[in-house]
Amino acid sequence: MNRQKVDLLIRAGRVFCADTGLDGPGSVAIDGDRIVASGPDVVVDARQTLDFPDDLLLPGLIDLHAHPAPSDWYAGIAPDPFILARGTTTVLSQGDAGADTWPLYQDTVIAPTRLRILMAISPVSQGAFAQTGRFEDLDNIDVESCVSTIREAGDAIWGISVNTAVQVAGDSDPGEVLRRVLKAAEATGRPLLFGSRREPSDWPLAEQLALLRPGDALTYCLHRGTDSGDESIVKEGHAQDAVWEARERGVLFDIGHGMMSFDFGVAEAIIAEGFLPDTISTDIQRRHVGLEPQHDMPLVMSKMIAAGMPESQALMRATANPAKAIGMSGEIGTLAPGACADLAVLRWDSDQTPLMDSAGVSRMGGRFEPVLTVRGGELVADRRDQ
Q: With the CA atoms of 217, 258, 94 and 255 taken in that order, what torsion angle do they form, in degrees rounded to the nearest 10?
């Protein structure tokens, strides 16, 4: 009996897939850009076989908040070398383009890049092309152009990005900013990737969350907030009632680590009482280049594990959960036969290097390091010798 012939077979000491329930030694067989078999008993003939007996093989990581863009754009970071090469195969751009810059973004970022990029478009026509000219002036919010661009783009634009922090909204009424953007979201049936108000403490978090709808995602959910604690999801050591209520309505909670939005104390408090963020994301941007250790999805996953999140839950929140959030379950975030062959191999470094939050508070623990990335069945990054 002839065995199936495939292009690539990857074996690993641990194969994890939250979607299919795999968690143990096994293999994934790939033919073309599709997974054809996965699990502990894969028997095929392969043109190429790779073995990782001590490592973790899982679906390609999905980052729900990133800034893949040219380096001369505000926050922009080169997608393939700094994101794809480090185990992440799909990202959601947080407002890097608006209606006016969307064609340029498609041509200069999406088209030449192997990383899969979806857009949470800015309702400001220039997007994050430059730091200024965003929500400081309410007239910059162009609902009509935003709606028209989304309708023309189709599935390439997942939703709309809006940030009401004072650094972005300036003196504008943050509630009015959100209400205007919601008009575009409702007209197109798209979700929001929402950055909440932090300082000054002029808009209670409960009022912000009350405006969000099922499928909208609150990003930066682990920031510390002000000394009063009103703008953090944690108050007096516990997740606010409004946070639990928003989750019950279907609002998602995304990490969006960034430069200033990850606090170990907040993470530990919510994990201890069973409130786990829905998705792990980096908010990776130009300022992260050159940091040691390099800021990436495996590092943020490791921080969540150090904060007390069970490892399997962290892996799920970097694969299956964000796939569902962006409407791509079954295609990515899974090792199921028929899915796109996006995979990552991670190696656990048990070195007790301090893991730092945004305020410089540290926790000791090991961390995941990316070893191999497969995108659409092709090896795009191999770091075994690094």
A: -20
Task: DSSP for 116-140, please give it.
Answer: EEEEEE-SBTTGGGSSSSSTTSGGG
| Of 88, 79, 36, the residue nearest 59 (C-alpha) | 88
Domain ranges of the chain: 5-59+338-382, 61-325
Q: At 192, which amino acid appears?
A: L
> Are the beta carbons of 153 and 145 closer than 8 angstroms?
no
> Phi and psi (nearest 5°) for 241?
-55, -35
pLDDT tens-digit readout, 65-96: 999 998 888 889 999 999 999 999 999 999 99
Give the bridge partners for 118, in sequence order.
92
CATH code, 5-59+338-382: 2.30.40.10
The Cα 26–Cα 347 span in angstroms is: 16
Tens of pLDDT along 95-148?
999 999 999 999 999 999 999 999 999 999 877 644 554 788 898 999 999 999
Rg (the chain; Cα; Å): 20
Ramachandran angles phi, psi of 235, nearest 5°: -135, 125
CA 79 to chain centre: 13
Alpha helix segments (H runs only) across the chain: 79-82, 102-105, 143-153, 166-169, 174-188, 205-211, 241-249, 264-272, 297-306, 311-316, 320-325
- 347, 139 in Cβ contact below 8 A? no
Rounded to 5 degrees, φ, ψ at 33 are -105, 15
Rounded to whole angstroms, how far apart are CA atoms 99 and 142? 9
Neighbours of 171 (CB within 10 A): 8
Residue 248's alpha-carbon distances to 202, 215, 242, 253, 280, in angstroms, are: 25, 11, 10, 12, 19
CATH of domain 61-325: 3.20.20.140
Question: Could you give the count of Cα atoms lying within 13 Å of 144 in the half-sphere of its Cβ?
Answer: 1
